[in-house]
Write a structure and sequence with these properties.
It is globular, with a radius of gyration of 26 Å. It has 543 residues and is mostly helical. It contains 24 helices and 11 strands. It has 5 domains: 94 residues, Orthogonal Bundle (Recoverin, domain 1), CATH 1.10.238.10; 80 residues, no CATH class; 148 residues, EF-hand (Recoverin, domain 1, Orthogonal Bundle), CATH 1.10.238; 80 residues, Orthogonal Bundle (Recoverin, domain 1); 121 residues.
């Protein structure tokens, strides 16, 4: 009887599962209130690897809290909802498998991949195959001319002897590994160790470098946004991350990559046939930036079948990223597109066409694109040190690869100052980490991908900020007239405090003042504290 009671209290979870669940609950109960809000619950599910969208999570959360008449979930309620999520997933598995060929005891590989996609699991075929082998070692049967090699790219041509209970065990195994194969897991471990400044710890900047190394380049703002989506360290308060957090962020980047590929596929599948013609596929790939050094599609893509279904298209995009890694790593972390733009800039300032930029030519380039580096007593010594560092042969000139490394090092130095100034601005503003998180999403949504090869930081024009603020806040009738004055004061304050960290934000060649995220926070602080916001219409401090 005691065993039955214990099983009931655990909602059917094993002891090891309970340990993981309790640890997760503690991580996301930030204020030690003994309850999880909807945002915290959503982040906890993502942390546990359950691919549920918010629109499916919210009704469950509201139903549970309505019954308990509380604002958040207790630990017991959290367990109940987890069990409910697992049961719904199992029901979906049973329903989908029942629709397959009932005369066969085998599951075809392509059906299995479709099932995983339907459930929201974006995992490589090799990881699925390994998880099946762990759960049911003798279940795989090869047919056709498929070879079971490492790096398996598709499950087509394979079939598996699996029941619905086996399938649920496979999903559990995939969640434990975050959907990565053993080789991928070991590779991520090596990358983590490579960019860790201390044993077992990765800084925010180190995280950005590691993501770039595995093919997911992100600006500093995007890295912080990824951290916030998983609610790591309460929305980004911590500056250090362990291997588990790194793996979860890489998984999130991979999921985002697949989502973009699926969106492009469906956009160009204008007739909703579930397949792209050769021309449609080319346009979709170009829209995703899958181009080589010549600016066109890689030659191997033209050897793919003329018509591509969604999963095949996603695999092409993922294959492009993997095959581009070597080029990116050899070119200071820059992609094919970025390198092409840098070639254009390099040739523009290589006046004699020698293939090298001398110190005099380099000074012209820096004065043009980075005026603060050339004219600021603060930046000039750092610039000299960086030049000496990247001039590996001490020739006094920079070839193209050395030039790329200089651009990378300038960007890294800027990121260091961005981090310091962002935390300083947050402290001075009085915004909570949740408010900063919401404002960052608002800012990034308006900026789009933002940045360019010289400035990875997303920036907004002042006019764009004015339009965004007046549309998002319930402001008084005179707000539009006063916003210009308010923003001018915020920019002036930020400039005097050094918040406009990027040296070329106010470059004459750009004309209009540009607003980075710390300056945006200063503006929003003034908006929140000013009389522009009408009390009766004030929506939310964090919009």
């Amino acid at each position: 009887m005691r065993a039955v009671e214990l099983f009931r209290q655990r909602e059917g979870f094993s002891k090891s599962e309970m340990d993981t669940i309790q640890e997760t609950y503690t991580i996301f109960d930030r204020d030690l209130s003994g309850s999880l809000s909807l945002d915290e619950f959503t982040s906890a599910l993502a942390w546990l690897g359950l691919p549920l969208r918010r629109e499916k999570i919210e009704p469950l959360f509201k139903q549970e809290t309505r019954q308990s008449r509380q604002d958040g979930l207790s630990k017991r309620e959290f367990l109940r909802l987890l069990r409910c999520a697992h049961e719904r997933e199992m029901d979906s598995v049973e329903r989908i498998m029942a629709e397959w060929d009932s005369d066969s005891e085998y599951v075809h590989g392509w059906d299995l991949q479709a099932l995983l996609q339907t459930l929201g699991y974006n995992v490589p075929a090799s990881a699925v195959f390994e998880a099946i082998q762990d759960v049911c070692p003798q279940s795989a049967e090869q047919h056709g001319d498929v070879e079971l090699l490492e790096g398996l790219s598709s499950l087509s041509g394979l079939r598996f002897k699996l029941g619905s209970a086996d399938m649920c065990d496979v999903l559990t195994a995939l969640r434990l590994r975050e959907g990565f194969s053993r080789d991928e897991w070991q590779g991520l471990r090596r990358v983590f160790d490579r960019f860790s400044e201390a044993v077992g710890e990765l800084s925010v900047q180190g995280l950005g470098r590691a993501l770039r190394w595995v093919g997911h380049p992100c600006s500093l703002n995007r890295v912080r946004d990824l951290m916030a989506d998983l609610d790591l360290a309460g929305g980004g308060a911590s500056e250090k991350f362990d291997f588990k957090a790194f793996v979860k962020i890489v998984r999130k980047c991979r999921d985002a990559e697949r989502a973009r590929a699926v969106e492009a596929f469906r956009l160009f599948d204008v007739n909703k046939l579930g397949a792209l013609s050769h021309d449609q596929k080319e346009q979709a790939l170009l829209s995703l930036g899958c181009v080589d050094g010549s600016g066109g599609l890689p030659a191997w893509i033209f050897n793919e079948p003329c018509f591509s279904q969604e999963q095949a298209f996603v695999q092409i995009v993922q294959r492009f990223r993997l095959q581009s890694l070597e080029h990116t790593r050899e070119n200071a972390g820059y992609t094919y597109s970025e390198v092409r733009e840098f070639v254009r800039l390099f040739e523009e300032f290589d006046a004699d066409g020698s293939g090298d930029i001398g110190r005099k030519e380099l000074c012209h380039l820096i004065e043009y694109f980075f005026p603060a580096y050339a004219n600021s007593p603060h930046w000039r010594p750092q610039l000299v040190a960086l030049l000496d560092e990247v001039d590996s042969d001490h020739s006094g000139t920079l070839d193209f690869l050395e030039f790329l490394h200089l651009m990378r090092r300038i960007r890294e130095e800027e990121d260091k100052d961005r981090l310091k100034l962002e935390m300083k601005t947050i402290e001075q503003s009085g915004f909570s980490m949740q408010e900063v998180q919401d404002l960052r999403k608002l800012f990034l949504g308006a900026a789009g991908e933002g940045g360019d090869v010289l400035n990875a930081e997303e920036i907004l024009g002042t006019e764009q900020v004015c339009v965004m603020v007046t549309s998002c806040c319930a402001l008084g009738d005179r707000a539009s007239q006063l916003m210009d004055s308010l923003m001018a004061k915020a920019i002036q304050d930020a400039d005097s405090q050094g918040t406009m960290v990027c040296p070329h934000l106010r470059s004459a060649r750009r004309g209009e003042d540009k607003v980075n995220f710390p300056v945006f926070l200063c503006i929003m602080k003034r908006v929140a504290d000013s009389a522009l916001v009408e009390p009766s219409k004030h929506k939310s401090r964090h919009l």
